[in-house]
Amino acid sequence: MFSFFKRKKTEAEQAAVEQSAPEAAPSAAPEPAPAPAPASSQAPEQPSLLRRWFGANGQAEAPQAAPEAELFPETAERPTTEAERKTSWMARLKAGLAKTSNNLSLLFVGARIDEDLYEELEAALLMSDAGMDATQYLLDNLRRKVKEDKLLDPAAVKNALKELMIDLLRTLEKPLELGRHEPLVMMIAGVNGAGKTTSIGKLARHMQTYEQSVLLAAGDTFRAAAREQLMVWGQRNNVTVISQASGDPAAVAFDAVQSGKARGMDVVMVDTAGRLPTQLHLMEELKKIKRVIGKGMEGAPHEVLLVIDGNTGQNALAQVKAFDDALQLTGLIITKLDGTAKGGVLAAIARTRPVPVYFIGVGEKLEDLQPFKAEEFVEALLG
């Protein structure tokens, strides 16, 4: 932490100031100088970073955030209490998943518990992008549960499906743990248009509410204006951005890690160029960036996150597989669940490649990116 003090003027400087100052009115008595604040001999206490949790288990630990209206004017009217924020978040999440929710919920209205219901459920789950594996898993277990518990009421069958889906998605529920390393180095990947750079900006602001100092690296030197977009988020959050006008992205990442270590930062986030998993030469470049980050700090990157557009359906599962094979992903961020996203792809991920989902997003505002919680998600999906 830096402290800035006023330098005391020399006698010569003071005399020069008095000569250049306008002559005071005879009747005006000089005001007494304010008493200097007592100097503190003790440095301000720093928050402990040991085992700080950020995510599903960390909400209660979050300190009071600074007012966000100055940085994000669009959030000036956001709900003020925790209950209001939760209600607002659930309303937006339900609205984003409304299409799938309606398709599934309507099946249980006045339904008979027979083979026709299971066939309709199968079609609805497949339409929600759950995939064949997850759909078959849910239906097999639902049949078993209906038989064992002798369920005859459609509402009870619906609740049984909700419980099964929560249990399935809970394998993806994991908080992002801060304070394990100094700095914690995070590498962010994703295809173009997934909302990667915007998610980085939101994450930086969220981490600041947990008293984390953040440094960003503009490693996306491939896409036009990507560096400028990250610089805007850096200005909004008052965060330094390490960048080069036209440089090797691995070099930018290395410089950022070194700078983060030298400055004693808590978190360093490295943006990377968006690319399709079929672009093998670009995927090799991602591997190179990861290797170079490791040379800058042993064991880094500590988190390798993939940002996925929730509207891409089963293609999202293919992205998870490809990027996980190349980079060994530690977490996912699912964005844009406020559009035509169907939501079932999370079930497919849970069954096929259960990489933890750290955050989900339903819009452009800061509060539209929240930690993933299986129970909340299924409640929005099935009502």
UniProtKB/TrEMBL annotation:
<feature type="compositionally biased region" description="Basic and acidic residues">
    <location>
        <begin position="75"/>
        <end position="86"/>
    </location>
</feature>
<keyword id="KW-0963">Cytoplasm</keyword>
<dbReference type="GO" id="GO:0005886">
    <property type="term" value="C:plasma membrane"/>
</dbReference>
<dbReference type="InterPro" id="IPR042101">
    <property type="entry name" value="SRP54_N_sf"/>
</dbReference>
<dbReference type="GO" id="GO:0005737">
    <property type="term" value="C:cytoplasm"/>
</dbReference>
<comment type="similarity">
    <text>Belongs to the GTP-binding SRP family. FtsY subfamily.</text>
</comment>
<dbReference type="Pfam" id="PF02881">
    <property type="entry name" value="SRP54_N"/>
</dbReference>
<dbReference type="InterPro" id="IPR004390">
    <property type="entry name" value="SR_rcpt_FtsY"/>
</dbReference>
<keyword id="KW-0675">Receptor</keyword>
<dbReference type="GO" id="GO:0005525">
    <property type="term" value="F:GTP binding"/>
</dbReference>
<dbReference type="InterPro" id="IPR013822">
    <property type="entry name" value="Signal_recog_particl_SRP54_hlx"/>
</dbReference>
<dbReference type="InterPro" id="IPR036225">
    <property type="entry name" value="SRP/SRP_N"/>
</dbReference>
<protein>
    <recommendedName>
        <fullName>Signal recognition particle receptor FtsY</fullName>
        <ecNumber>3.6.5.4</ecNumber>
    </recommendedName>
</protein>
<feature type="binding site">
    <location>
        <begin position="271"/>
        <end position="275"/>
    </location>
    <ligand>
        <name>GTP</name>
    </ligand>
</feature>
<comment type="function">
    <text>Involved in targeting and insertion of nascent membrane proteins into the cytoplasmic membrane. Acts as a receptor for the complex formed by the signal recognition particle (SRP) and the ribosome-nascent chain (RNC). Interaction with SRP-RNC leads to the transfer of the RNC complex to the Sec translocase for insertion into the membrane, the hydrolysis of GTP by both Ffh and FtsY, and the dissociation of the SRP-FtsY complex into the individual components.</text>
</comment>
<comment type="subunit">
    <text>Part of the signal recognition particle protein translocation system, which is composed of SRP and FtsY. SRP is a ribonucleoprotein composed of Ffh and a 4.5S RNA molecule.</text>
</comment>
<dbReference type="GO" id="GO:0006614">
    <property type="term" value="P:SRP-dependent cotranslational protein targeting to membrane"/>
</dbReference>
<dbReference type="Pfam" id="PF00448">
    <property type="entry name" value="SRP54"/>
</dbReference>
<feature type="domain" description="SRP54-type proteins GTP-binding">
    <location>
        <begin position="356"/>
        <end position="369"/>
    </location>
</feature>
<feature type="binding site">
    <location>
        <begin position="335"/>
        <end position="338"/>
    </location>
    <ligand>
        <name>GTP</name>
    </ligand>
</feature>
<keyword id="KW-0342">GTP-binding</keyword>
<feature type="binding site">
    <location>
        <begin position="190"/>
        <end position="197"/>
    </location>
    <ligand>
        <name>GTP</name>
    </ligand>
</feature>
<keyword id="KW-0378">Hydrolase</keyword>
<feature type="compositionally biased region" description="Low complexity">
    <location>
        <begin position="13"/>
        <end position="28"/>
    </location>
</feature>
<dbReference type="InterPro" id="IPR003593">
    <property type="entry name" value="AAA+_ATPase"/>
</dbReference>
<dbReference type="InterPro" id="IPR027417">
    <property type="entry name" value="P-loop_NTPase"/>
</dbReference>
<feature type="compositionally biased region" description="Low complexity">
    <location>
        <begin position="38"/>
        <end position="48"/>
    </location>
</feature>
<feature type="region of interest" description="Disordered">
    <location>
        <begin position="1"/>
        <end position="86"/>
    </location>
</feature>
<dbReference type="InterPro" id="IPR000897">
    <property type="entry name" value="SRP54_GTPase_dom"/>
</dbReference>
<dbReference type="GO" id="GO:0005047">
    <property type="term" value="F:signal recognition particle binding"/>
</dbReference>
<keyword id="KW-0472">Membrane</keyword>
<feature type="compositionally biased region" description="Low complexity">
    <location>
        <begin position="59"/>
        <end position="74"/>
    </location>
</feature>
<keyword id="KW-0547">Nucleotide-binding</keyword>
<keyword id="KW-1003">Cell membrane</keyword>
<dbReference type="GO" id="GO:0003924">
    <property type="term" value="F:GTPase activity"/>
</dbReference>
